Amino acid sequence: MATSPCSSSGVSSSSSSGLGADAGLEIRTRSVEQTLVPLVSQITTLINHKDKPKRSDKTLQAIQRVGQAVNLAVGRFVTVGEAIANENRELKEEMSVACIEARRAGETIAQLTDVASLDHPESDSHITIFTDKTGVVKAARLLLSSVTKVLVLADRIVIKQIITSRNKVLATMERLEKVSSFQEFVQIFSQFGNEMVEFAHLTGDRQNDLKDEKKKARMAASRAVLEKCTMMLLTASKTCLRHPDCESARINKDGVFHRMRLALEQVIEIVTDSRPNGENEMAPISIYSGIKEFKNKVEGLRENLYFLSKENLSTMLEVILEHTEDFTDSAYTSHEHREHILELSKQAKMELEQLVSVWMQAQNQKTKDLMEDLEVAILKTCQCMNELKREVHSAATSLAADLLKYHTDHMVLKALKITGVEGNLEAVAEYTCKLSEQKEQLVEMCRLLRHVSGTEPLEITCIHAEDTFQVTGPQIISAAETLALHPSSKIAKENLEVFCEAWESQLSDMSLLLREINDVFEGRRGEKRVYLSLPRPGKHNANLKALKPVKLDTEEQAKIAKLGLELHLLTSDVDSETEKWEDQENEIVQHGQGMSSMAYSMYLFTRGEGLLKTTQDLFHQAEIFATEGTKLASALHALSDQVHDDDKSFLLLEAEKLISMCRQLQITAKASAQGKSATFTKVDACILKTRNAMTLLCQLLPLCCKLLRKNKVGNGCLKPAPPWKEDRIRTGTSARTPERRVDTLGMKSLENHVTNMTFLESK
């Protein structure tokens, strides 16, 4: 497989200076780009200085300082490059040549800018920037080219480390797949866990360093699969070892291994910028992207009447309208939305016909009246397309919101767990059919959301969600069948729990995705953290020991990640509760949403994403979170004055608990911490205390809503039930909210998994 680091984003500088890096060396990571930007800026300033007849001493000194600064910076840079070359023998020759070229170019620039001490810097007796500007440009080009080569070679080392790490994971997976004894499995899985942590570190750095948002989204999707599948692989393998003759257990395990291999392969495709057999990736066109391109072409007619044909424009509209059939043919699209989409599709054809008619006339006779008619036709066509876009967005997001609320109780999963433990094969078969129906609904929802996601990264997230539902549904079914065949098996029960949690987690992620899609539609966009992944001498080698000087160790990383994921789940629960309130302006809802938003930012911090870039940012966010919690407690006190005595005392008690938690969090966030160990302890404590406050918030929101309803305070709280007409599933378990997840997928320390594994359960 190719490991070339070249990709789609080249390096360039001011065109006026004639500078540019080697056209064959292109850059796709922020770390490489950001290293080059200051150098390009300095050299461009140097080249573009204004030639004046008289030059002051200040000007001459400034030119000399810039030249010396460039030379010194290049010298330090080359020293690092040479150290990297010594650690990577296979690239040493190429790296050394590039370093020599860079050093030589830096020295040339220093010589040509050594003008401050000369009486006549423009004298032919001494070659300087004033007498040989062409020489400076050549030296600058050589410098940029050689520095870029060094950076790209260093980037290639990172790619090689990821490939090597992937190969180690694959080799250990093959051993795990063939293992036949529990003892051997424990030993190999321990090794596998360490290798997966190493792979997660390397790919996490790479993901955050990628410039291409589409590739970054694909990398995030693949890493999410690997994260969740690690726990699935553990329980599925244990089940298979415990019940070696069970066909459904084998199918369940094989599915996990297959999915992990696909995810590993996709990671390598992304980092090497390659596809199997050289094929090109052809992603399906969404309605949003089709409408955007169509409108650009239509509006382009204002500038040029001849740059495209009417057949081309008609074909583009036909493709868009074909995609709207995904909505009109869907059994889950409401009658009202279907009718509106069909009407707008018909109107779009008529508007285009009118536009083409005026357009053709304007090509033959460019009169003022015809150009005004053309402008009107352009505006009407674009307006119609905007209305069509708004209608499909409404259809997709309203369907998603209703489906996610309808399935929030996870009744089918609960029924499968109960009937599986009972060994009731007939009931399990009945509920697996219901789960398959639910899967088809959710898959259809993902397909429709993809059309209206608004950005390529969100499109990829929708495709990932669709794949997850497609794969996880059958895996839950095979796990449930295994439990029904072995109802007393603790490991079979644990395995089903893990796959059900994966399903619940994906549903929770869909709520967040829906929020992001709506944010894009309404013009609200967040930022991503810039994270650099270039190697440094002695660092980022492909082993865990080399990673330790610059990262948390395995146990610390796992602990923070686990707490972060618990925060993620709690924010989803809080958001779900606040959405049930009819009065969204209620003070309790407002503060609850604010706390949830801040907790989500802290979760993103544990993944190396979001707006919190340093531990100090995290501590500051924790302080603000605590302040918001205190405000919520004040709102609870106000509510207590409006309820009956029995409820009042209980509500005041809960408010005091929240105040105490927030006070402790503020004290922790403001406390000083020196050194890595103390800082980790402080980060851990802040996230833990935030999680505890969010847990209490999850309990308070439904309680407050109940008290408001009971005492008829305000404008009501709960929204009406979603308009789904399917038969509800009746089981003996509560249907109101999902069970609280004690464990989280793939984030618990892998070492703890291995230590605590109990393979031989009592029957």
TrEMBL record:
One CC-aspect GO term: cytoplasm
Keyword annotations of the record: Cytoplasm
Pfam family, one: Vinculin
UniProt key word Nuclease: no
Any one GO biological process: cell adhesion
Disordered, as annotated region: 1-20
Skewed-composition ranges (Low complexity): 7-18
Gene3D superfamilies, sorted: Alpha-catenin/vinculin-like
Subcellular location: Cytoplasm
Principal subcellular localisation of the protein: cytoplasm
MF-aspect GO terms: actin filament binding; cadherin binding
Family: Belongs to the vinculin/alpha-catenin family.
Protein's recorded name: Alpha-catulin
Protein species of origin: Callaeas wilsoni (North Island kokako)
Lineage, uppermost ranks: Eukaryota, Metazoa, Chordata, Craniata, Vertebrata
